[in-house]
Design brief:
mainly alpha, 6 helices, transmembrane, transmembrane helix, membrane
Length: 160
């Protein structure tokens, strides 16, 4: 982990790298790695703060479990399923944010995009085989992280 504060340019490049690797993953395996923006955002999170990434994984697991439970009581499919899962992820992430923001104010600096990431991953876990989705998401996020980290260490990508 590089203790760095990323510039907006580096963040945009990280998201773009994640999009590129996600697209390659989807086109070659027909698996979505947790959504198109997810791997880039996870890579940026790993560069900035490992604990935030761990927290996102925990909220993703809670979102997935809550969504599977909700499906036992409510008919959810298609766009309603997507909306319900992403909304549940946002609500869980917002709850954690409200609880932790006073204790850890720097944890959430500018991470509002991360509020939807747990829902995106959980949605793909519901739609696709779980193991394949976890493998695709972690592989693409790790590839993005490695390229981003090497770029920062070589001074190719700007950072503060």
């Amino acid at each position: 982990m590089i203790p760095a504060v990323l510039t907006p340019e580096t963040a945009a490049l990280g998201i773009a790298l994640g999009l590129l690797f996600s697209l390659v993953c989807y086109l070659t395996t027909n698996l979505s790695p947790g959504g198109m923006i997810t791997p880039g955002w996870l890579a940026l999170t790993l560069v900035q703060d490992l604990w935030l990434a761990v927290m996102v994984l925990g909220i993703t697991a809670a979102t997935y479990a809550g969504s599977v439970l909700l499906q036992k009581f409510v008919i959810l499919y298609g766009k309603r399923l997507f909306a319900a899962v992403v909304l549940m992820g946002v609500l869980l992430q917002a709850t954690v944010y409200v609880v932790l923001r006073k204790e850890f104010p720097l944890l959430y600096g500018t991470q509002t995009l991360g509020f939807i990431v747990p829902g995106l991953i959980a949605y793909q876990l519901i739609r696709q085989p779980r193991g394949a989705t976890m493998f695709a998401t972690s592989t693409v996020a790790l590839a993005t992280y490695v390229v981003l980290t090497v770029g920062i260490l070589l001074g190719v990508m700007p950072h503060a």
